[in-house]
Write a structure and sequence with these properties.
Layout (H helix, E strand, L loop, with lengths): L2 H10 L1 H68 L6 E6 L5 E4 L15 E5 L8 E9 L5 E7 L1 H51 L15 H51 L3 H31 L8 E4 H18 L3 E4 L6 E4 L1 H18 L3 E8 L3 E7 L10 H5 L17 H11 L4 E5 L4 E8 L1
Parallel strand pairs: 7-9
Antiparallel strand pairs: 1-2, 1-5, 3-4, 4-5, 6-8, 9-10, 10-12, 11-12
């Protein structure tokens, strides 16, 4: 798999999308909270400044109402000279805007008396640079103008400090959101892995495996308990089917064995050539029926997972070598050749008898339907081993390979050769018993069969 495809597969996975969703939601929540805090702080700072400005304006208007212009001028000067009013902005101006008293050199041209709040940058008398101010104005009865407000530079600086702190908090929230998303995805993944492990075990034939409940009572546990109930029912049905199958196979085997013995006695007692030929044909058919029963029973047992208790360490390289020796003379009679790829000992736990029969079936098929050279090989894999049997015959078309593996599946080329169509079905069942798979491939020319087993 290429890196691009690997990343694409990860991006499509439910765990990744769930983690991304959690990460985005946490990030959005943190951003929304921090923006709300910033706005509340800013509103509080500006609100305080405006409240003080309104109170100052109203107080000065009250002074004007009581003592007129001279009292207002005296009050403005007293306010500006008092301690604690360093940020206060006041201006009393004539109707034409010329200043009478205050710390602004002139009435701002863009401020209309009695207009709503204005936030502007102005120079105070003696100031070297403009300052941001929140101003409120009023028109006096004599045509004069009154301007009151506060310098909000310190409030804005405090707001910038708050913004920097909030930005730092947001940057800190990024790794925390990633950790939270990863932990949430791992939690969900862990709950699903418990169910997936049970599904894999049951798929491999271990019907006794169950989802372990954790007592949380959530949806995952409810799914697990439902699966356990389903598996209990399946195990019961499989057990009943196994009993019926075994009983039927044994019941049929006895009369077939008696039939075979009767045919053998009859064959030995007759001297008529026609009768001998007929009895020999019937005897061969009886042998075929017995072999079919035995193979079908082996397939059922393997698919039900029976036989795992008989796994033992076996050298697959040596097993293949023994088969090459056994089939060597038969292959030479057919004009073929057979060999084993050189390999070191490969010892893994397997059901020796069943696996040996499965590999023998594959070699026997190569002898019957293949041609040229038959090659056997065994190689280790990450979780076990892989056995390969390849030949130079006509092979099997891609569209008919699934049919060839089914029970009693016989392709047209095999109709003229004896058999019941259970060989590859048995091999596939044995592979599943060992936690592996059976794969049919093109050998160009011929057929390459890969059988994997887990150690």
């Amino acid at each position: 798999m290429t890196p691009a495809r690997g990343l694409s597969a990860i991006a499509r996975s439910a765990s990744f999308r769930f983690a991304a969703l959690v990460f985005i939601l946490q990030l959005l929540s943190a951003g929304a909270i921090l923006m709300t805090v910033r706005q509340l702080i800013l509103d509080e700072l500006i609100g305080d400044s405006r409240a003080l400005s309104v109170a100052l304006r109203d107080d000065l208007l009250s002074t004007y109402g009581e003592g007129g212009g001279p009292a207002l001028v005296a009050a403005i000067r007293a306010r500006l000279d008092s301690v604690g009013n360093a940020d206060t902005v006041l201006l009393l101006a004539r109707a034409d805007g010329r200043p009478i008293a205050g710390n602004l050199g002139a009435w701002p041209p863009n401020v209309t008396p009695g207009a709503p709040w204005r936030t502007i940058d102005l120079f105070r008398v003696g100031g070297a640079q403009p300052e941001r101010m929140e101003l409120v104005s009023a028109a006096l009865p004599d045509g004069g103008r009154l301007l009151a407000g506060h310098v909000v530079e310190s409030s804005l600086k405090l707001n910038r400090v708050v913004e920097a702190a909030l930005l730092s908090a947001l940057l800190l929230a990024l790794p925390l959101a990633l950790i939270g998303a990863w932990a949430a995805a791992r939690l969900i993944d862990g709950r699903l892995r418990n169910i997936a492990a049970t599904a894999r075990a049951v798929g491999a034939g271990d019907l006794s495996h169950r989802v372990v409940p954790d007592g949380s009572g959530d949806a995952f546990e409810a799914v697990g308990l439902s699966i356990n109930v389903m598996l209990e029912r399946i195990e019961t049905l499989v057990s009943e089917l196994r009993i019926v199958t075994d009983g039927l196979a044994h019941d049929l085997r006895s009369p077939l064995t008696r039939l075979k013995a009767t045919l053998e006695r009859a064959l030995g007692e007759t001297s008529d050539s026609g009768e001998q030929a007929a009895l020999a044909t019937a005897l061969a058919e009886a042998d075929t029926l017995l072999a079919m029963l035995s193979t079908a029973l082996q397939i059922s047992r393997a698919e039900a997972g029976i036989g795992r208790d008989r796994f033992a360490g076996t050298d697959l390289t040596r097993m293949l070598g023994d088969l090459v020796e056994v089939y060597g003379p038969l292959v030479e009679e057919r004009g073929f050749t057979i060999s084993q790829d050189p390999a070191p000992p490969l010892r893994i736990p397997v059901h020796r008898e069943l696996l040996g029969q499965a590999i023998a079936n594959l070699v026997d098929n190569a002898v019957k339907y293949g041609a040229g050279h038959i090659r056997l090989a065994a190689a280790p894999t990450a979780d076990g081993a892989e056995i390969v049997i390849a030949d130079d015959g006509p092979g099997i078309p891609v569209e008919r390979r699934a049919e060839a593996v089914r029970r009693f599946g016989r392709l047209d080329a095999a109709r003229h050769v004896g058999g019941a169509g259970l060989g590859l079905a048995l091999v596939a069942a044995v592979a599943r018993l060992h936690g592996g798979t059976l794969t049919l491939q093109d050998n160009a020319p011929g057929l390459r069969i890969r059988m994997s087993v887990t150690g």
